[in-house]
Predict the 3D structure of the following.
Amino acid sequence: MQAAKQGYRGLLSHGYYLDAMAPASEHYQVDPLPNAGATLASEERARILGGEACMWGEFIDGENIDSRIWPRTAAIAERFWSPKETRDIESMYRRLDVVSWRLQLQGLMHRSATDAMLVRMASSGDIAALRILAGAVVPSGLGVRQQAAIKAGGIQTSDLPLNRFVDAVAPENDVSRLFATRVALFVNGKFADAAAEAQIRSQLTAWRDNAEHLEPLLDGSFLLKELIPVSQNLAALGTAGLQALNYIDSGERASEPWKSDQVAMIAQMKTPKADVLLAVAPAVQTLIEASAAAP
């Protein structure tokens, strides 16, 4: 806004940096001319030409670049040509899913490259358990990874291979997003949606049990060993979420000490491990808090 007032024309970049690994929904809510634009005169508003999607390239290569650009850039593009009042995130994701598959049919590898990279890391075609873990996490953004690299005694350069789990997983995924949606519907619906609860319970059970299935692979892989604490944390989330469901089903309110312990555990998970974050943790916390408030 200040630049426009000072007579400069420009494009908004803030809020559209893809290397931050933010979900499409976060980018979609940033408008090049926000409500603050109401304080600008018409000639000042005309100086704001639009926006641009940007990405620093320290952690991209020819294999994962598609997943770092698409399909989130399509959501940003729609933001640019849409009225700022257009804010329906669920509607946006329905369209984005169609666009994503069309991009895949055109030859982009934003979906398929992840499996290829995981197979190579695992040295095995059996990556079912690894795929479950991938569906529960998102990669850390550029700033977090740079700090971690510096702390480890170096910086990322083009000479270093991008062969870690964090390099393969997508900035967002349908599994964690749909899980959060189901939890919200279940909680907001006063726990009456039996189908939603069944889906939630099935997903939590898969996460709880996945560490046991994944442990032999992680123990035996130099590239994947760093994921052991991530896998263990996901199992702990699954266990806590299932206990919350049991409280809700029994009609018994979860105790405050139990809730506090689980929330404290989740708070510790907000620190990235192996440069990935458990994207499903907030939804599990919602379920835990709901179980303590249940009648």
Q: What stands out?
A: Strands lie at 10-12, 48-51, 137-139, 276-278. DSSP finds 15 helices and four strands in the chain. The first helix runs from residue 2 to 5. The chain has two domains: 1-110, 124-295.
